[in-house]
Amino acid sequence: MYPKFPYFGSEEKCEEVPITFPPQHLNRQPGFEYLLKPRPISENPQSLGSCKLRDKVAIITGGDSGIGRAVAYAFAKEGANIAIAYLDEHRDAEETKERINEIGKHCILIPGDLRNESQCYHVVEETMKCYGRLDILVNNHGVQFPQTSILDISAEQLDATFRTNIISFFYMIKATLPHMCPPGSIINTTSVTAYRGEKSLIDYSATKGAIVSLTRSLSLSLEQEHIRVNAVAPGPIWTPLNPASYPAEHIKTFGANTPMERAGQPFEVAPAYVYLASDDSRYVSGQVLNGGTITQT
To answer: Exactly one of 2, 204, 273, 283 is catalytic; which is it?
Structure first.
C-alpha cells in the first residue's frame, strides 16, 4: 500500500490523502480518471457552500476530471449551474454530471475538440440554449508531452501543445465574450512551470507563460466591460494528465519534491477558482494565484 495520512473528516469517516502513488501509466492524453489508482479526491465533504455563485452559469473546459471536476463540484455547491466542455472522456464526464445533479444543480456535457474554433462557439451556443445566460468561463484543458531536449519536440507536438493549451483559450474567450453577463469572470489555468520552468516540458511551460500574459493583458482590455480575468497556477496535482504523460515509475515520486513533500489533490486547489469566480474577488483582476509549491514570481 502507498503511504497516506488523515486530512479531513469526522472520526467516523476520515478521508485520507495519498503521499505517494503506485506506478501506473495511461496510454493516451487526455487520460481517463476512472483508471487512476487511487482516484483523485475531487470534493471536500466538509465544504457545504454559501451561495457565492447562486444562479450563475459557468462553462468549465476539461471539467470531466481532475482540477476541472473539482471546480465543477465546488461551483455547484456554491449554487452555479454548469456546462462541461471535454474531448471524449464520456465515462468521467457522466460521473461528474451525476454528482453535480446530486448536489442539486444542473449540468450539461458538450464533447468535442476545442482546438477547432467552431467547437468553441458550439459550446457557448449550447450553454446559452440551455441556460440563457453565461457568467463564468474557466479555461482548464491542456496537454503535455515531456521530452529530454528541445531537439526532440517535433513540429507536430509543438502545434498540438500550442493549439490545445493557448490558442483554444483565445477561441473560447472570443466565443464567450458576446454572451457574458457583467460582472463576469474568466479564469485561466496556467502552471507553476510558467515561473520556474521545467526542463522536460519546454513547449508546455511556454504555453503556460503565454496564459499568464494573456490573463494580464486581457484583464486590462476588459476592465471597462466589467469582466475580470485571472488565473490559477497549480503545482503538481494528482490528475489523469500526469500518468498520461510520464512513464509508470515516474509516478512513484510525483509531487515528492514540493515543500509539502506530496502532490496536491484537486479539491485542494478548487477553492481558488471559487474565490476568483465570486464577488469575494470583485477588486481582483489580472492576477495569478499560485498553488502547490513556493515559486518566485
So the answer is: 204
Can you count the helices (H) and strands (E) in the chain?
Answer: 9, 9
Check: CB of residue 62 under 8 Å from CB of residue 119: no
Report domain extents, the chain. 54-291
Q: What are phi and psi of 14, to 5 degrees?
A: -105, 115
Cα–Cα distance, 282 to 276 (Å, whole number):
8
pLDDT tens per residue across span 9-24? 444 445 577 788 989 9
Can 73 be counted among the known catalytic residues?
Answer: no
Count Cβ atoms below 10 Å from residue 54 Cβ, excluding itself. 11
For 120-176, the pLDDT digits (tens) are 999 999 999 999 999 999 999 999 999 999 999 999 999 999 999 999 999 999 999
Q: Which CATH number fits domain 54-291: 3.30.70.20, 3.30.70.360, 3.40.50.720, 3.30.200.20?
A: 3.40.50.720
Q: Encode burial over 56-82: b for 16+ CB neighbours within 10 A, e otherwise.
A: bbbbbbbbbbbbbbbbbbbbbbbbbbb
